[in-house]
Amino acid sequence: MSATIAYPSCLEIEPLAAPARGICHVPGSKSIGNRALVLAALGTDLGPCLLEGLLDSEDTRVMIDSLEKLGFDLALDWSKATARVARKPGDSSKRTIPAADADLQVCNSGTTMRFLTPMVATGIGRYRLDGNTRMRQRPIADLLSALRSLGVAATGTQPGDFPPLEINTRGLPAGDVSMRADISSQFLSGLLLSAPKALGPLKISVEGTMVSEPYVDMTVSMLRAWGYRIDKEGAAWKVSAPQSARLPRYRIEPDASAASYFWAAAAVTGGEITVAHLGKDSLQGDVGFVEALAKMGCGVRYTPEGITVKGGELTGIDLDMNAISDTVMTLAVVACFAKGPTNIRNVAHIRHKETDRITAIANELNKIGAQVETREDGLTVYPGPLHGSRIHTYDDHRMAMSLSVAGLRVPGIVIEDPGCVRKTYPGFFQDWERLRQMSLCD
Predict the structure, then answer these.
(1) CATH number, position 258
(2) 3-state class of 287 per DSSP?
(3) Rounded to the nearest 5 degrees, what angle is found at the Cα of 345, between the Cα atoms of 342 and 350?
(4) Who's near 79: CB < 8 A, 6+ residues apart?
(5) Most buried by CB count within 10 Å: which residue of 303, 310, 359, 364?
(6) In this structure, are residues 20 and 433 in contact, taking their beta carbons and an 8 Å threshold?
């Protein structure tokens, strides 16, 4: 599904006349895909890598555009969801980053900004990274501080070390570095992805608490799958460097965050949905969303075909969602259809995402009739009689997709700027309509 698909300025969600049923196929994981693109590029000194199951989305495309500007050659076949990542023809250099100078525009892609910043630090030259207005408000100071402590000239050109960024480097030096990861685990993941290409061994320690730890586990698992040596010692990772490794081929698994909307559809309509090709052994922590639904009263089955959620009588729960924070808004919508309040906690870091997600989801759920109380680190949803409303999406793809779940039960839910889903799931509303057709035909 092309990331350039046209959408109207607003889209009304038609309620389902029957419980949601069917087998759904969601596209490849954006989180895995952007990590895989970085790892594939860093391994091109040994040869090309074919990535399969690559998501066609804005976040993926800005990563690809940036890698091309850095001198890599990417042959794309979106009809097959593949990308062949290689050195440009005739480039026999062993430079980690082929280009010595580049201007990179990442729009509002957090993974692209936070993965490419340490990646370009392994090069030799001058690199500038910028994004849209929201990206210039998203923090990255902790990552820049870690790079500077290793000896890289890494600066944010706005007060507070905010983008645009400028990186002047002669390679990523060896050493011990301590960094915070209480705002985003992507800072740590970005440094880990590039650590094998440092000039010598790195020891990376984490100060204080770390948010979204399953995403760091994903990063480490992928590094090891590629063949890199990385060891964990307490709160520190030791990475031998320099290392070279490559995979000739890598398949990206379906996106568990995207799957959450379809599992939620089963929960709120009393239906039964299977998301294909995801299982308990997924690299993605967000498959844990189904266990949250189980606590609320849904049935969950793990089979060789995928993960199935069957709706049940929903009751409110109290849940620490730090490890599955990309599904906070999905669960908040499900909570509107439960008996009793649902308390979501330990997710203060989602205020620094594409929008302040705690405030945004509270605003929109209050508009449709729920009562939502917010705190710095979470929110409590009190169900109430629900009604239709226009939903402001704050240029945040997850606002559009999560509130579409409410539209399956509540007439008059109108999603403003539905095209914001291009960021990670351009074909979402087409797949949402396929869900409707499957449910009606069941």
Answers:
(1) 3.65.10.10
(2) helix
(3) 115
(4) none
(5) 364
(6) no
In a shared domain, residues 397 and 266: yes
Q: Which of 238, 270, 289 is the last residue of a domain?
A: 238
Tokens for 429?
């509303």
Range 220-236 burial, b when 16+ CB lie within 10 A, else e? bebbeebebebeeeeee
Q: Which domain holds residue 223?
A: 90-238
pLDDT in the model for residue 1: 40
> Domain for residue 223, yes or no?
yes
161 is catalytic: no
Single-letter residue type at 301: R
Task: Examine residue 164 and say whether the peptide bond preceding it is cis (omega within 30 degrees of 0).
Answer: yes
* Total domains, the chain: 2
390 and 361 co-located in one domain? yes
Q: Are residues 206 and 265 in the same domain?
A: no
Active site residue: 45, 161, 326, 396, which one?
326
Domain ends where: 238, 263, 295? 238
Q: The tokens 């698909």 sit on which residue?
A: 5
3-state SS class at 409: coil
| Strand pairing report for 272-276 and 21-24 | parallel
- Cα 61 from Cα 73, distance rounded (Å): 14
Query: Which tokens belong to 388?
Result: 């239709």
Which tokens in the block code for residue 214?
């399953």
